[in-house]
Amino acid sequence: MIKRKNTSSSFNTGFNLLELMVVVAILGITALIAIPNMSRMVENSQLRSTVNDFSTALSLARSEALTSGSGFVNPVNLGGGASFANGWCVSTAANCAPAIRVFPALTGQTVSGSTASIQFNSRGELVGAAPTITFTPTGCAPGTADRARVIQVEPSGRTSIDSGACV
After folding, report:
1. Can you tell me the distance from the alpha carbon of 120 to that of 100, in angstroms, rounded to the nearest whole number?
2. Closest Cα to residue 149, out of 76, 46, 41?
3. Which parts pass through the membrane (predicted)?
4. Which of 133, 156, 54 is nearest to 101 (CA)?
5. Which of 18, 89, 135, 167, CA to CA, is 20 to 30 A from 142?
């Protein structure tokens, strides 16, 4: 005799409403924790990208100085004064003409420190005082440790990038 399986069992497979509500609550709590951390990660990534662009501009100007005799990283002047926040350009002259490469204005960051052109001589050495330039995420409270990036150009022309406090 063949036994048939009872298809009218007393339990159903699947999720009930209470289980579904618990899962949704756990996902909501996880999202509340993850979203602020995600925005800080994006902010730090943008800051790193900006600092890397500035470091690239310094290296390009130094390389140009070795080949042509002088190289500059100039802050862009938009009428309200020259500032690296307005962008910067690499050229063989102090006025961005002719520009070898132009970098866009900052978005989401502030810059402080030197606003003067950075010049390298034919040996790749820095001409003038050694500048320190600090890039800070917008909205970073002053004194907050390790959120800003500080670029120091040494007299030899070498650059260093360190973490610093927000200004």
Report:
1. 15
2. 46
3. 20-38
4. 54
5. 89
Q: Is 5 left (phi over 0), alpha (psi -120 to 50) or beta?
A: beta
- For the chain, the residue count is 167
- What's the pTM value of the predicted model, to 2 decimals? 0.78
CA 152 to chain centre: 16
Q: From 137, 159, 157, select the one nearest 49 (Cα to Cα).
A: 137
Extract long-range pairs of 58-63: CB within 8 Å, 24+ residues apart: 58/118, 58/151, 58/153, 58/159, 59/159, 60/90, 60/100, 60/101, 61/90, 61/91, 61/118, 61/120, 62/120, 62/124, 62/157, 63/124
Q: Please report the pLDDT score of residue 38 as a whole number.
A: 84
Q: Which residue in the block uniquely carries the two structure tokens 């309200």?
A: 80
